[in-house]
Specification:
mainly alpha
């Protein structure tokens, strides 16, 4: 199937601007992972949803976090 360039660019742009909102698939996955980590390690894990700029804001905050091994970025 040949996809015209303009159609491909519209689809790619549409996929790029889709937000990773709280309650979405990434949020559900992160909460499931946090629950399993909490059960395994006996400590509470927290999920912090930071929306905006196609997840660039949250990624920037995770990059600036202390390098102590306690920050996980799921995007």
């Amino acid at each position: 199937m040949k996809l015209p360039r303009r159609k491909f660019l519209h689809l790619a742009a549409g996929a790029a601007v889709m937000p990773f909102a709280p309650g979405g698939p990434n949020d559900v996955l992160a909460r499931l992972i946090a629950q399993k980590l909490s059960e395994r390690h006996g400590r509470q894990f927290f999920i912090e949803n930071i929306a905006g700029a196609s997840s660039n804001i949250g990624t920037g905050q995770a990059a600036k976090a202390a390098p102590d091994g306690y920050t996980i970025l799921i995007t």
